[in-house]
Amino acid sequence: MNLPAWIARRYFFSKKKRSFISWLSILSMLGVGVGTMALVVVLSVFNGMEELNRTIFKTFEADMTISPREGKRFTASPTLLNRLRQTPGVGLLTQVVQDNALARYDDGQTVVQLKGVDENYLQRRQLDTALVEGKLLLQDEGINYAIVAEGVRNDLSISPVDILTPLELWYPQKNQTTFNILNADAFNRQALNVSGVFFIEQRYDNFVLAPLTVVRELLGYAPNQVTGLEIQLLPGTDEETAKQALQTVVGEQLRVQSRDDLNVDLYRAIRVEKLFTGVTLALIILVASINIFFSLSMLVIEKRDDIQILYAMGATSGLVRRIFLIEGAIIALTGALVGLVLGIVICLLQEQYGFIQMGTVSSVIDAYPVRLQLGDLLITGAIVVLATILTSWFPAQRAARTSLI
């Protein structure tokens, strides 16, 4: 029999007398439990937000993007394109020309992010779930079409069913000694029918997708010039391995970035906020654990006679110390276990039923996203254990130093 553990359990679970110290121990346990539950839930929400952003980016951005290290454009020669297509793991390669342009529709106009893509872009099928009106079409029977984001549609009151009103795209002509914004001849222009409208998230609300040849002509690009190359990897391909292989092919003049690389600042912001929130909740758990310090200190005073009897029976100071350390562990770990279970249950229920709503009409999803991670649960457990040791050691040491009469 583990004598220190048996005595500690008797002190905590005894129903013969519920003193103020006993209720303070229960309050300490509840405080640790609530803090642990909150820490699990909040960290899981941050994980869910990070995963949600990855899902959003996956709907529009490619697995790998190749762009110039200097300047806006580069020449994608047929040789380079063939070498990239033959790289292990490469599925689809899309040539892209992207820049700001002026969009006009009927009496409205707005500045848009114009993205010209070649014919295999729609084979990626990324926008299939984001289509809200019309259809995904860029070219059909020699007619060029544009696919616009919902923000552009709302700004210009675009109707995809109206085939008589084209979407006009304007871009300043090059090599002009003087530029007059009021002079219509100072702009290159292209007119396209709108085939469909998509909605992903607010950051993509000003995009217009158009055929690559049309955008090249509008922006004055040479036939092989692009602003980027987007690559979809084959399923099961290791991203880091593919990234290194592609970087070897394109050389040092071009830069290969994964989807996470393109959004590294956002992920860093989420993780920093998660860190500071976690530290704040950990301090709350520590404050709740301080109650353990006070309850154990008063328990040592209350059980002074018991401690002296134990010494008289031959107990060592180490045994007495372990009794009160285990007592503190029972209080803290019971609360932590209850908090972990409740936190996990709340996260699973939120993931399944989404009963806590975002509360904003423009949100991509209705409910707060959550995602449990084993690492967060282990860190939470480690915080509770550390707080327990810090708050239990001094009362236990004081009990060990109690002298005989």
UniProtKB/TrEMBL annotation:
It is a multi-pass membrane protein. The keyword Ribonucleoprotein does not apply. Residues 25-248 form the MacB-like periplasmic core domain. Pfam families: FtsX, MacB_PCD. Keywords: Cell membrane, Membrane, Transmembrane, Transmembrane helix. Residues 280-403 form the ABC3 transporter permease C-terminal domain. InterPro entries: ABC3_permease_C (IPR003838), Lipoprotein-release_system (IPR051447), MacB_PCD (IPR025857). Signal peptide: none annotated. Coiled coil: none annotated. The chain crosses the membrane at residues 20-46, 275-301, 322-346, 377-396. One of its GO terms (cellular component) is plasma membrane protein complex. It is found in: Cell membrane. One of its GO terms (biological process) is lipoprotein localization to outer membrane. Its main location: membrane. Belongs to the ABC-4 integral membrane protein family. LolC/E subfamily. This is Lipoprotein-releasing system permease protein. It comes from Fibrisoma limi BUZ 3.
